[in-house]
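Below sits the subject:

***
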Amino acid sequence: MKERNYPTYKGYWINEHHNINGAENRAAKKVMAFEVTKLVHGEEEAVKVKQASEALFAGANNLDNVPSYYMNRAEFANGIDLAELMVRIQLATSKSEVRRLLEQGGIYLNNLRVTEMPKTIGEEDIVDNAMVLRKGKKSYMKVVVD
C-alpha cells in the first residue's frame, strides 16, 4: 500500500500508516482546519468559522455565525420561487443549477429535503423570523426575516 502523508503544521501530522480511525482522523482534520484558517484569516475569524461549523454539523442550535441574508417579511406575502430565492441569496448561480440539485436531492429548507419544483417559499416556512436553506452537504444560508 502506498503511504499517503498529509501536510504538517505546528507538529500536527496525519499519516494513514499511524492507524488513525475515522474519529481521530476527523479530529485531526478539525485541528488542521482551525490552524490554517487562523493563519490565513486570524484567530477571531477562525473561532467564528469553528462555531459555525459546530452549529451546522454537530447538531448544535446556534446559528449566529452562519452566513445570513436579510429580507423583509412582506416579500414572502405572495410567496417567492425557491429557485429565484436561491439565486438571489447567492446559494446557487442559476435556476438550472437549482433544478439539477433538486433532482439529485440536494436542496433542504429548514432541514427538510425539497422534493418538487416549482416550490414557493411563503410565510409558513419562516420559523423564529428565519429559515435555513442548504445546498448539498455543506453550503448553508440563513435567511433572516424582519
